[in-house]
Structure formats: C-alpha cells, structure tokens
Amino acid sequence: xxxxxxxxxxxFGGLSGTALDWPQLVYTGDWLRRITExxxxxxxxYMLLNGGTLTAARSYVCDVFLVxxxxxxxxxxxxxxxxxxxxxxxxxxxxxxxxxxxxEGDHAVAVSTxxxxxxALDTTIVAEKGGNASAAASSSSVGSGFTxxxxxxxxxxxxxxxxxxxxxxxxxxxxxxxxxxxxGCTMKPNVRPGPAFKRPNGxxxxxxxxxxxxxxxxxxxxxxxxxxxxxxxxxxxxxxxPAPGLVCVRIAVQ
Length: 254
Prior knowledge:
By secondary structure, the protein is mainly beta. It has one domain (4-8, 23-252). 4% of the residues lie in helices and 33% in strands. Strands 1-4-10-11-12 form a five-stranded antiparallel beta sheet, with no helix packed on it. It has a five-stranded antiparallel beta sheet with strand order 2-3-20-5-9. Strands 6-19 form a two-stranded parallel sheet.
C-alpha cells in the first residue's frame, strides 16, 4: 500500500483490506490519478495530460482546474552577422470551476502545446493559452500571458507557481542570448518555477538555468534563433516549444 493510500485509510478509521470506490471513469488520453487532500477534504484527483475523451459511467459532482498551454517564443531575425533579440512566450492562463456536474457519458478534453485547454461539462470550461512572442529587426516583444499566482482550484491556500517573467533577450554581432519564457503551474503548492528552458540541441554556450523539461504546465517557450548567419552554426539547430497545458478533475471521496 502506498503512503498516500495508507494516509486515507488511516483517516477513514483503518479500512484495512477495503478498496476505495474509485469513480467509474475512463480516459482515451494520458492521465495520472491520485488521492489527495485539500482543506481537510479527501479527493480523487485526475490530471489529464493531453487531449481525449473522458467517459463517466454515472454522474458525479466535481471541481475542475485548467491551465492553458504556453506561448511560442519568437525567432531572432539576423542581418549579416548581427542577431537581434529573441523574446520568450507568455504563460498560459488558469481557469477553475467548482461544484460542476460531470454527467454520465462522454466529455471532450483539449490539452496541447501552444493551445487553450478545455473540458466539456454542461458548458465548456476554457483556459486560454499564453501569447506568442514577436521579433523583428526594429522591434520585439515578449508574449502576453498570465502574470499572477496559480492557485489550485482557485484556493489561495494552495499556490503552485507563478506566471509571467518572460524576457526579451539580447543580441550582438556574434551571439544571441535568448529571452526566457513565462513560468508555469507546478501542481506543487508553494514552489515557484523557473523559466521554461530546454537545453539547446548542439549549442556550444551556457544559456543560463537549464532545467530538465519545463518549469511547469503552461510555461512559455524561450526565444529561439532562426538563422545560422550569426557567427556560430550551432545556433541554427536550437529550437524550443512551449509547455502543454493541463486539465485536472477532482471528486470528493464519499
């Protein structure tokens, strides 16, 4: 028995050997499920990691929390050997709704990179994507996006990362420093994510605080170069993508 299940069994008076009655849900996409506690109430919680169809064998009352996908970083234009700034993408927006009906039958779920996240209940709940950055020889700007704190299910007792923080980057005659993407939702309360960096493919310089994968769901992509004509051919291989969004569903343990 894992520690999470053991805690629930202890709370419920030592139901040793008794299986908890998981909701009768099936999902065609990838998901994670767990039993966890929010505000003294135990929940079955499902993290829907990509798009699919969620099918319920009967009706349930649920809460939902969504994060839209991060925004794209902009490609740095270059003129001769001069590379211009390459700004990062914005953070995906959160959305939540409590006490909703997850009715019997099929429910469409959309989760992807650089796209809004949504789940179809009696009405469709949508979390918008972060804005894409733009870059030009004369001007560049980071992607717009969410800049506040991600609170799980809107509960200020459960902060889980901070959006915003996308930067413009800088350029020079011989190299370019990429802008960082906006932060994402960690799904871990009280943890602030770093920028959404992925290690450049074949790059020869240290690009700053590189983390494995992404800083969190909905994190914006860092800026990227579009041309090898900036003094170092390894930059041409360097590309990034924004972090995908997320849809979470929780149902109280009965």
